[in-house]
Amino acid sequence: MLKIFRTMKKSINIISLSLILFAAAILPCITAAYGLSDRLYYISAAVFLAANIFPAPFTALPTRYRIACGGGNLLCAFLILILPETVYCIAADVPQYGLFSSEFLRDGLILYFSELIIFWNGIIRVYLSSSMLGTRLRILGILCGLIPIVNIIVLLKIISVVHQETDREEQRLKLRKSRIGKNICRTKYPIVLVHGVFFRDSRLFNYWGRIPRELEDNGAVIFYGSQQSALNIKNSAVELMRRIKEILEETGSDKVNIIAHSKGGLDSRYAISCLGAAPYVASLTTINTPHRGCEFADWLLKNAPDVLKKTITEKYNAAFRLMGDSDPDFIGAVSDLTAESCRSFNETVPDSPGVYYQSFGSKINRAMTSVFPLNFSHMLASRFEGENDGLVSVSSAQWGENYTVLRSRDADGISHADIIDLFRHDKPDLDIREFYVKLVSDLREKGF
Fold it and tell me: Are residues 45 and 62 in the same domain?
């Protein structure tokens, strides 16, 4: 019933916008035909401009979604108005002035350019604001723009995706309102988010995308691992251990819950089992962590020329020193992620009995639709290990008492970056922020 109501509400908004734009477009034609007051030109221009600036109802949606919603509405209006504007131009002008008259040409140009403005306003809005639209559909829209019938089909798909995205965000806002004050993510112990390799925790660009704010809005207390971008596991774990002690001192808590992505999961396991962090960690949740290593990393390290490895290492280390790392170690970090290294790691780093371990993994469906370099590395990883997220195989990500593989029917699937919302990209059938809300609320239910 709610879905039907939302559909009706959106339809009413689109029809209302279409009627306003139609009236504003034909008013100059009527004014010229009947010699009405010139003020009507200004009125029609003002109404047309206002409808193009504010094509969506005023809502609580974030700015990006309001822009996308307005763009989708404009594109709908563009399709709706093609037929009535064409019929009006022919029915009003041809019988009275003739097919090749200046009046017919004048009205035709007015209506043509009004449609052109509506279309380009709409398409620019959705291309710039929609995250679910994706690169593939954007390119398809450009390539098919001049192909009759096909362009309409592609445009309808674009409209559908954009409205699906904005509808879901609207439902998210309603869900947020219903949870205000409930603090479903207020765990007994604070949450420590531990990043993976080749990234740093930064205030300017959050590695975890929109996830931390969503968790905090639902009561979570969030901290970050703050280890350097690239060190071997042992040295990263030393930094993480130091950070855990700082958090305990700051909060007065006895323990923390760690949620770690990629190599951060191995850093956390080492800190817990080998550096004495076990009494201070209630739970460890690893996200797409290569617990059994990445076999393609073994192949790359063995086959890449020494000159290439040396050059990449020097450039990476130099760049991240400038970004704040005191002693980055590119080759050390990569070497610890090989399958051979992880076999040894798992033999010497047993799980701590007092810590709850669980894990999550994901997979890319089609490499060609994923972002670089994950599309390239996905093909390498597939050759050696089968299903993977662009870096870590589904089998390698498994660890602990519970293991869940996140899958999507979307053409892209869920990549190593998607699982942490790195690109702030919404999936049609996966709400990544809600996934983390459920993850943390489950930790709360378990008493952590």
Answer: yes
